[in-house]
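Give me the fold.
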Amino acid sequence: MKISPLQAARLKYEPKLPGMLRNGIAAICVKEGEATQSVADQEKIAALFPNTYGKKEITFEKGENTSEAKKQVVGVILSGGQAPGGHNVVCGLYDALKATNPENVLYGFKGGPSGLLEDDYLIFDDEYINQFRNTGGFDIIGSGRTKLETEEQFAVAAEVCKKHGVTAIVIIGGDDSNTNAAVLAEYFAAHETGVQVIGCPKTIDGDLKNEDIECSFGFDTATKTYSELIGNIERDANSAKKYWHFVKVMGRSASHVALECALETQANICLVSEEVAEKKMSLAQIADYIADAVAKRAEKGMNFGVAIIPEGVVEFVPEFSVLIKEINELLAGAKAEEFNALASWKEKYDFIEKGLTAESFAVFANLPETVQQQLFLDRDPHGNVQVSLIESEKLFSALVKANLEERKKNGTYKGKFSALHHFFGYEGRCAFPSNFDADYCYSLGYNAFMLIQYGYNGYLSKISNLSKPAEEWVAGGMPITKMMNMERRHGEDKPVIRKALVELDGKPFKYFEANRDTWAVETCYTYPGAIQYYGPDEVCNLTTRTLALEKGE
């Protein structure tokens, strides 16, 4: 297979481990910390996880390895959407496993959790795994979104593990995947299967984050990839001086990606969904906010700019959120078939008008027709609107255009407004991982095996002190239940990992807030350029602006 020069060079890159993991497996011991409790609903979570709740946090240190020497047969699963660095988690896990005992075996279950249930796997060897070191993607074994949540699934998983002599499963995924890991770990413990479960924190959205998880893997690479593209667009905008670019970026439930890209590029506008919700901003208010910046720049002769839009921002607009709920109710059950049977959009429009409240229909009627129709595209498996299909970048540019036309009529705006649209999503999910993500992910995998070797179950692989050089990173583990609370899901109370939203009193947002009025009116663009892998540390080992600001650096 022909490979590019960059890929050939990256295959040879040796990821950096935290200092305490560089001493060799035999010289790593455990320091136990305090017992933990869940972030909320402690009694309910404890009752649901009697065998894995309240365990202690642990840190690995230099010292004599006191773990039990035994052959380990480990299974690994990639779960959910892709994130740069996933291959290195598997490579780190494999290398630690083989360094401990060459007889240890690593199974890769194909296509996500379904691979475990269907007993579809491959067994890793040096020749196979060496093709994937420091590369992007999840194609090493593939990924999937099958949820592990029923007793029947757990029983099948236990049988598959028993068949192959599997002693531990490592699940690499986001908040939902690690919630499943916690539930599976509890089942295995309750049924005394002898199988451990370890999780690894993955998501480019950045919302798997707390006092213990400083950053989920993939966030660094994805935001640098998007920021490069946004910087390129800014340069083009500043050259042509005739377009406003509306750029939608990944992040349905939180705006970490949008905020980081704004910090990296100093775009004129960045919406932050959490602020929209906090201020209860309407669509009209958001359009007015953006239009103000357009008008002020036009007064300076600058009929161009760049606006960053989080993927899920419309869900945070109160009136739009109510509209979506009403549409979900409107198309519940047999009504969906009745709606789909209607031949023309006019008939469907009349059906919608009769089924919505007057308030929600007023919101609906003011939307561009393309967005109206996107609200009625294919539903998700639960019959709900797929918000990710809504082209919010086009929605807001249309609303801004209408706002500016009204200003022209009353003589308060004389500029020109031409909009172009972009969505950056898949471009960042499988990029070559940055040095940070290559090192971080390799460390997460290596560390996951140390947790297995010391017998931990229901733990998350944890690497902290990430704003410092890798030598100073701290390796350890925390019970997954520490991150959990109860939430209402599909009509039932479920234990889930709490999503981390952008903190409006946090240092990253405060820095953005202090500068955005200037960025909105002036042209203060910064151009991050492509991810650098070789060169001075300040260029190729740079952390995200978000992490640096959070750590006061």
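The CA atoms of residues 37 and 396 lie 43 Å apart.
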